[in-house]
Each structure stands twice: as C-alpha cells, then as structure tokens.
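User: We ran a pulldown and think these components assemble together. Before we commit to crystallization trials, I'd like a predicted model of the whole complex to look at. Sequences follow.
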Amino acid sequence: MVLPAFILLAPQMGENIGAAARVMANFGLTDLRLVAPRDGWPNPAAETMSAGALPDVVTAQVFERVEDAIRDCGLVLATTARPRGMEKPVLGASEAVARVRATPRRTAILFGAERSGLPNEAVALADAILSFPVSPSFASLNLAQAVALIAHAYSEANASGPPAAFTDAVDAPATREELMGMMEHFEDELDRAGFFFPEAKRAPMVLNLRNAFTRAGWTAQEVRTFRGAIKALAIGRGKWRVKRED
Amino acid sequence: MVLPAFILLAPQMGENIGAAARVMANFGLTDLRLVAPRDGWPNPAAETMSAGALPDVVTAQVFERVEDAIRDCGLVLATTARPRGMEKPVLGASEAVARVRATPRRTAILFGAERSGLPNEAVALADAILSFPVSPSFASLNLAQAVALIAHAYSEANASGPPAAFTDAVDAPATREELMGMMEHFEDELDRAGFFFPEAKRAPMVLNLRNAFTRAGWTAQEVRTFRGAIKALAIGRGKWRVKRED
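Assistant: Here's a predicted model for the assembly, 492 residues in total across the polymer chains.
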C-alpha cells in the first residue's frame, strides 16, 4: 500500500491549501500536489494556515497540467458534488478508501478549484468519482473540508479501531468483588435507612440500582470514593467531618 | 432519530464557527450551540465564513454554561485528541454515529476551544469520548475540520440505510437534565454530610463520581430510584420508613 497523493487543481486561496496540508498531516499523509495554483508557489498564506505542516511535514510539488501530476499513479479518483452525466462508478469516502487500500500502486485523488470544481476534462481522466452525501440545497463543500473527509476515512480504515491510547493513563478497573462489595455496602446502608419499603419493592429496586452500577465499568479508585460517600451519608449530616478530624 | 446538536465550548475564532456551520449545512445538520463564544454573538466573521449557512440554515443558540446547553440531550459525546486518564469508552466517528442513530433522544457532541480543547469538567459530563485516528506527532485538528468529520460520518450513515432498530423493551434513557439533577442532589447531600474535606479534594472527588455516573447510561427510572436512595440515606437511619408511613 502506497500513501495516496492529494492533487489540488488550480486552487485559488492559499488558506485552503494550507488547511488541506494541515489536515493531511493530522492523518499521516504527506504527498500534496498543486496544479497551476492561482497565486504561485510557495505561498505565505498557505504556510501560515498549515500550522507547521508546510513545507516539511507535507511536501507540495507543483505541476502545470493534471496529466503530469498523475503520471506515477495507478488509480485516479475525482471528487465532485455535481452529477456529471459520465459513466463512472460513484464511490462514497469509505468505498473509495477501500479501493485505495486495495491498489498496489499510488492513488491520485483530484480536487477542483473552490468556485468551479473539477473541469470535465479532469474527471474524464479518473477511474471513478468520489462523492459525499451532501444536502442538495447546500452542496458546496469547502476544499480543505473535502480533503479532510478523505484523509480521515483513509486513516480510520488503517487504524484497526479508535486509537489504542488512553489506556496507560487510566486507573485499574475494579474487580467484580470490589464492585459487588460496593453495591452490597450501599444496599446495607439503604436497608438500615429503611429505604426498601414495602418489602415487595426491594427486589426491583435492587435490580434497578445494580443495573445502573454494573454498566458503569468502575475503577478501583472510583469504588473507594463512592464507598466513602456512602459512609459519609450514613453517618449523617455534619458528623463525617468531625470523625475524620479525630 | 433526532438530529444531533453540535456544541462549541468557548470558541475563539468567528471564522471557525462559520466554517463549522457551513459544513453542518452541507450535511443537513442545523442545531449549533455556542457556550460563551469569546467574541460574543452574532459575529460577522462567522456569518461571512458560513457561506450562507448562518443565521438561517443553521441556527446558533448561545449558552453561558455547558450544563445548560446539554439539558435536553440523552447522550453526550466529548471530542478530544489527548488522553484524559478518564474511564470512558473511546469511539471513532463511525462508532459514535452508530450510537447517535440508536439513541431515541437528542445527542450532544462537544467540541473544545481551538487552543485548549475541552476542559476535564466538560469531559466528565460525557458518556463517551469521540476521537480521531490522528498522527501522534501532528495531532491538533482544526475545530471546523473536527465538526466536518462527524457531520460527514452522520450523513454517510444515514445515506446507507435506516438506523439500527430501537430496542423498544428498554426504558427511556434519562435526559441529561435528570442525570445532572441526580448528581447535584448527591453532591449537595455529601456537602451537608461534610464529605468533601479537605476542600482541595472536592474537585477531584466530584470528577471521580461524575465520571462513574455518566458512564452508566441511566434510565429515567434508575435516576428516580437512586434519588430516592440518596434521600433515604440523608434523612438518616430509621427515619425514612417513619416518614413514608406518615
């Protein structure tokens, strides 16, 4: 699998080029190609907007014609919102990414200019059309947003799931024994407080509470905090603090 | 299925608010909520950048506190790139959208400010974390790009077919207002019992409890049962039954 190239045809605003480069870097993509950018290249507005992605994290190559920009690619996709009356398969982002990942050569993904979109000549060079389920009455997607959607879909497909992070910083989960101890402690105190009344309501009430508690996936620390809270309430208003100050 | 609300916490740049509104409109979403926008509201830069989405296609409501902005929501997702050391499920965009579509009540999706992201207090109010498979060395996603990714995932899922069937055997989930009422009730009683001592421990203890509670996905019935339990404990041993027999 080769990282796809994102090709912007005749982009107008440097800000959009920069925002596109930034979100490519967000998702680990590095191959940006510009065909006849309106304001030339390099473009200071693009660098500012790229938040550090340009010129080093993402490499921008400039071409005169789209034909030159796609020469080394084995699959070409054209992003477009408007129907073109062309007999091409139309893919959503996830389907397109599946094609990209299944292609041993580099894929080129073409994006048109802000106002006009892709010219028919460029779409004609593509194997398939890549389209988004936009609202027909508000169909004009910002250029960098379109880049973002594909970059994300690509990265999401590569990641086997959500990022595995977040696990190392996290507290140990409570054992089932700790969790049951907590629930029984709570129920005991509720018993003493006369909460389960009448007796016939006891079972459904306990079930209710246990359902809610077991869904939560408590950490050991949270169990300790909650048991402290039960104890404080059970001892009664104002007495907890006195006891801890002994 | 109810259209989700996109909630921007303390957004700084009007341009980002406008770009977020534009891409929401692209994908048929209309419920934008702003919590304490830095430059006030309305904001001319936001309207310009929205390309006609603001103020009529997308409606922006302004709130002072995040608690107020999520009151009518049954599921709350917090978008974040950084690990938080909080015990919450972490969902990718597609998984998150599946949850949104399976929830009969409105979903709130929280987005943090450009520089700082979401504060821990806001993440603690969420049922789950929504994260993107970003490159660890270039993780900072533009605010409007994050909005775009979720809006697109939502529309793509809708375009591909009806949502997973609702499980009608299940009780209605509690609204966020009911759940927050329950947590505040619990914290009030713990306050009266002198539990939050010393004062410096108050914030981490509240965070601990709220994290555990929001993970549980409470039904309205479970909330009522738990509030009854708190009341019983607060009144004190033996007195509850007497009171109910009055």
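Residues 176-245 of chain A form one domain. That may be worth checking against your pulldown data before setting up trials.

User: Thanks, that helps.
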